[in-house]
Structure formats: structure tokens, C-alpha cells
Amino acid sequence: MSRSSARAATEPLAALVAVFAVSAGLALYAGVLDDTLANATGGRDIASPTADAVERRLTSGGVVDPARVSGALAAVPSGYDGNITLRAERTWSAGPTPSAGAQTDVRTVSVALGPATVRRGRLTVAVWR
């Protein structure tokens, strides 16, 4: 028969502290690695997901409403500046003039120019810090 005092045991608090320390170290390592890889590959692609969000805000039934262009600036992520330009026989734009290093995404959309008048247009979304 073995004695319970002869067995090795770990205090629960010490085990929790060890798990926390390992988890914090792993999270810190992952964050630094992510930033390093983003800098090495030229940064994250922020323009495409922003253009997706802008297009969702502008579109109703698959057709872009030019009156919504200024309100679509809310889709630009915080910490970034953005410019939205829509061209289809006319030009609608919202936001400051893009900087030289801005990431851009250009896509073709259907634009409602009036009742029963839909034309092909170009949606350009520029994002920069």
C-alpha cells in the first residue's frame, strides 16, 4: 500500500499560473509573427474586404444606388482613411483624395441612374493609413 504523502503533487494555483504563462507566451509569439509576416509581404490587403463592405452598403437588389456613396464611408475600417468613387456616365465621390500609397480595389457594378435606367459603372475604393 502506498502512502499519499510519497506521491508528487502540484498545487492547483501553480498549475493555473503555468498554463497562463504558456498561453500568454504563445499569444505574444503569434502576434509578433503575424506583424512580421505582414511587414515582410508588403502588408495586409485591406482594400478588397473594404470594397466588399462598401459594395454591400451601396447595393440594393444587385444595383448600386449613387445616393448612398457618402454613407458607404462608414465601411472603411477605423484607423484608415478611404475614398469611394463611382463612375457611370457621371461621377460620385466621397472621402479625401487618396494618397500615393493607397491600396485600391476596382470593380464593375450596375448603377441605377434613374427609374428603369441601369448602366454599367466602375466602383473604386481606395484605403490608406
What number is the mean pLDDT? 90
Helix content: 25-40%
Query: Based on CA inertia axes, which overall geometry fits?
Result: elongated
Strand order of the largest sheet: 4-3-6-5
Total number of domains:
2
Q: What structural category do the secondary elements indicate?
A: alpha+beta
Strand content: 25-35%
In whole angstroms, how far apart are the ends? Answer: 70 Å
- The secondary-structure element order is HHEEEEEE
Main sheet properties: 4 strands, antiparallel
**DSSP strand count:** 6
* Count of helix runs: 2
What kind of assembly state do the chains in view correspond to?
A: single chain
Question: Which residues sit in consecutive blocks of at least 5 with pLDDT less than 50?
Answer: none
How large, in whole angstroms, is the Cα Rg?
26 Å
Folded structure, characterized:
The protein has 129 residues and is of the alpha+beta class. It folds into 2 domains: 31 residues; 82 residues, no CATH class. The strands form 2 sheets. Strands 4-3-6-5 form a 4-stranded antiparallel β-sheet. Strands 1-2 form a two-stranded antiparallel sheet. The radius of gyration is 26 Å and the shape is elongated. The mean pLDDT is 90.
